[in-house]
TrEMBL record:
SUPFAM superfamilies: Cell-division inhibitor MinC, C-terminal domain. This is Probable septum site-determining protein MinC. Residues 105-201 form the Septum formation inhibitor MinC C-terminal domain. InterPro entries: CAP/MinC_C (IPR016098), MinC (IPR013033), MinC_C_sf (IPR036145), MinC_N_1 (IPR055219), Septum_form_inhib_MinC_C (IPR005526). Residues 8-85 form the Septum site-determining protein MinC N-terminal domain. Belongs to the MinC family. Interacts with MinD and FtsZ. Keywords: Cell cycle, Cell division, Septation.
Length: 220
């Protein structure tokens, strides 16, 4: 079967390849042609050493899911290293709040869970377990280990949990060990945040008040 359309154009540049993707055709048709061309053309390049790839989508606006579909196809060729994706929608994505990732399970003693962005974790962080994020940490479960939010320096990050009994908290560069009475008091739904470079703990019901200036939770 041959592809008569020309919705995907692959051009060589000095330091890699540019994929020019038509912004007028149906998205599924674009994906089909992209798969076909990766399998049937430019094999001397696509099966060789590592090649940097820039993707140009023209005026086409795509969702995060559609972006992943394009990347999944390109990743089938192990030597293609995606360097950039040029799309109007993606430019707006960078400016807006980052999405929140949902994970579930259990972080046991000695284990470290790391995520780039905001994290909603459905499960428990056991004593000796660690969870770190560049953004916020929301735990629907017990936080009995160590949590570090805003590890890249985000002082507006927060740490929230249904059962709030951490062994240590960190937000950006501020470290707080919980007071001794935390071990004996009744644990509940609370969150930690920074105020004047000091760690503060408050009831979960007050999280909206804290975030009011941001208009929405970051990514939630």
């Amino acid at each position: 079967m041959t592809v008569k359309s020309n919705h995907v154009t692959i051009k060589g540049i000095r330091d890699g390849l540019v994929f020019l993707l038509d912004d007028q055709c149906e998205f599924e048709e674009l994906l089909y042609e992209l798969r076909y061309k990766l399998e049937h053309s430019h094999q001397n390049i696509l099966t060789g050493p590592i090649v940097h790839v820039d993707i140009k989508l023209g005026a086409r606006e795509i969702t995060e899911e559609q972006k992943e579909e394009i990347l999944d196809i390109l990743k089938q060729k192990g030597n293609l290293l995606i360097r950039s994706i040029d799309s109007p929608a993606l430019v707006e994505e960078v400016k807006g709040p980052p999405p929140i990732m949902t994970m579930c399970g259990m972080v046991r003693s000695g284990q470290v869970l790391h995520h780039e962005g905001n994290l909603l974790f459905l499960g428990d962080i056991n004593p000796g377990g660690t969870v770190t994020c560049t953004g916020d940490i929301y735990i629907l479960g017990s936080l009995r280990g160590m949590a570090h939010a805003g590890i890249s320096g985000d002082e507006e990050a927060i740490i929230a949990a249904s059962v709030f009994a951490p062994t240590q908290l960190r937000i950006a560069d501020v470290i707080s060990r919980p007071p001794d009475e935390w071990e004996s008091r009744e644990t509940g739904m609370e969150f930690a945040y920074l105020q004047d470079n000091q760690m503060q703990i408050d009831k979960m019901s007050n999280i909206v008040r804290l975030r009011r200036d941001f208009n929405v939770f970051k990514g939630v």
